[in-house]
Amino acid sequence: MAGVLALAGGVGGAKLVWGLAQILTPDNLTVVVNTGDDDEFHGLHVSPDLDTVMYTLAGMANPETGWGLVGETFQALAALQKLGAPTWFNLGDRDLATHIRRTELLRKGSTLSHVTEQLCQHLGVRCRVAPMTDARVRTTVTTDQGVMPFQEYFVKHRCEPQVKDLVFKGADWALPSPGFDKALREADAIVFCPSNPFVSIGPIMALQGVRQRIELFKGPRITISPIIGGEAVKGPAAKMFRELGEEPSSLAVARRMSGLCTHFVLDNVDAALVPQVVKLGMQVEATNTFMTTPEDKIRLAMFVCGLAGVSLK
Amino acid sequence: MAGVLALAGGVGGAKLVWGLAQILTPDNLTVVVNTGDDDEFHGLHVSPDLDTVMYTLAGMANPETGWGLVGETFQALAALQKLGAPTWFNLGDRDLATHIRRTELLRKGSTLSHVTEQLCQHLGVRCRVAPMTDARVRTTVTTDQGVMPFQEYFVKHRCEPQVKDLVFKGADWALPSPGFDKALREADAIVFCPSNPFVSIGPIMALQGVRQRIELFKGPRITISPIIGGEAVKGPAAKMFRELGEEPSSLAVARRMSGLCTHFVLDNVDAALVPQVVKLGMQVEATNTFMTTPEDKIRLAMFVCGLAGVSLK
Fold first, then answer.
1. Does position A279 have pLDDT exceeding 60, yes or no?
2. Residue B244 in contact with partner chain A when CB distance is under 8 A
3. What is the ipTM of this complex?
């Protein structure tokens, strides 16, 4: 392959990835997705970010919730609750099918990469979607209310506990997945989607050798800031910045990406920050990064591909 | 406990068991259910007969299909099909919750007995329902189209292949479940529900020591014939008799139960067979055994309890 390697977490990343998929040929796009917030519910392996990306690319995602499927029903979850199972993690009936199938194939010996490839194929997703790793990496959040798995922090406690530290258990020894490895070798450009820098991009960067390989990557490496006007479009990124001792801003994001990226894209409302980000050694571009409509997503994807210098379909 | 130990397979057995549950106190009824036709679908442990009995007792069973739940939806199954999974075995969304929960608890180390107890408790089933064994026993059908697991014969091939032999894999070494063992020691009477003598009662009798323990059981042992007028009310029992070389009739059932039972209940339409069954050494009673309405089930249950000599609630 050549083209773009896009690194993504959940909703924000999926939006840009959807835009990229509209303008690049499938063999010019590899999406590598955070699996640090994977977890097991009812004995089933759930990969929230992989599914958000996959469902978004398949046109099945629920645009209102930011998780799950459009037109979803919740009969099984209601029945699980009746049977005494903890049901704070929302799982729709059709979404459950994904987790059931994934778990079955994993138990039979498939890698998460291979399972993801199969699921995408059946859902008609044509570009390559790969987990960041086939190893087990789990994001653990140290908070004022104790240490907890990411989904417990994120869903059960609605990001309310104060974050003191993040640990990506298993990341030190986890190798990039084969698809990630191949894209790191062959891609023309790397795009850091507007995903949470701590818990979406963080786990990917923590994998064995990844940070160094990206630092040494020859082509353009472009970050799209997930912070607009000091706030995250969605999710706890801004709150995490504050709790970890920094004012949330595109500048704070840029500091984290310094050395990793050649280009930094921030929103027009943050144009005043451009000179400071330039000093960090990146080419900086301001544009409209807020995505709601399909046109927004395609427009930002076009902008990014322009910086990446990759040919469109 | 004391009271009745009822041995059951699926639909026919569940009907009589429901009747028994209406007239006996919960501690006077233990239902032991065939698990020879358990199987795994999508990596989930499915116990069709246990679920039919459990759902029937909980008032949740679908009376029209003979399997699954009333008002069931099939969103997950449709999604599994889209993901390339084989979906010839019907699994509704709420039914799936049972299999997901059961599988999770089994994987965590619970026995099938303990899981069944938990599920029943949450569904409000008050009498004791136990699997025949906690060991793995699998009914395998040798047919003119090859050897296949029971559900494949029963559901996928709709009982169409010609049966040449039945094997209850694992039964020789499988001990009765703790609940079955206790009931065999303490019950006042044993009731063989009107279930398929080959694939519902057969696996239970094949367990280690069970046949001998029932032969030596001191109290009444009562069979209700599942064959009425030479035909099974439901399922392949009559077809199996023919294919295994015997005319299907209550007499043929009685021959199989000879030595195991003290009492044999057949339908009024088969009253002419009474003298021949008497010769097999059992007390024979003719009554209306065809159950459709709740009243039918309670009436037959009362009749059986009269023979068993157990006190009603």
1. yes
2. no
3. 0.92
**Residues A83, B43: C-beta atoms closer than 8 Å:** no
For domain B4-308, give the CATH number.
3.40.50.10680
Find the residue in B nearest to A122 (Cα).
Answer: B83
Considering the entire predicted model, what is its pTM?
A: 0.94
pLDDT digits (tens, 9 = 90+) for A45-66: 999 999 999 999 999 998 777 7
Residue A38's pLDDT is 97
Q: Does B114 touch chain A (CB under 8 A)?
A: no
Are B43 and A79 a contacting pair at CB < 8 A? Answer: no
| Domain spans, chain A | 4-308
Q: Which among A95, A98, A100 is the nearest to B43, CB-wise?
A: A100
Shortest CA distance from A117: residue in chain B: B83
Helix (H) or strand (E) holding A267: strand A263-267
Listing DSSP states for chain B in one string gives --SEEEEE-SHHHHHHHHHHHHHS-GGGEEEEE--TT-EEETTEEE-HHHHHHHHHHTT-B-TTTSSSBTT---HHHHHHHHTT----S---HHHHHHHHHHHHHHHTT--HHHHHHHHHHHHT--SEEEES-SS--EEEEEETTEEEEHHIIIIISTT-SPEEEEEEETGGGPPPPHHHHHHHHH-SEEEE-S--IIIIIHHHHHSTTHHHHHHT--S-EEEE-SEETTEESSSSHHHHHHHTTS--SHHHHHHHHBTTBSEEEEEGGGGGGHHHHHTTT-EEEEE-----SHHHHHHHHHHHHHHHTPPP-
Q: Quick one: pLDDT at residue B67? A: 78
Of the candidates A177, A224, A185, the residue with the CA atom closest to the CA atom of residue A204: A177
For the stretch B5-40, pLDDT in tens is: 999 998 889 999 999 999 999 999 999 999 999 999
> Counting Cβ atoms within 10 Å, is residue B161 exposed (0-12), middle (13-18) or buried (19+)?
middle
For residue B190, is pLDDT > 80? yes
Nearest Cβ partner of B76 from A76, A104, A108?
A76
CA distance B243 to chain A (A): 37
Q: What percent of chain A has pLDDT over 90?
A: 93
> Could you tell me which chain A residue has the CA closest to the CA of B43?
A104
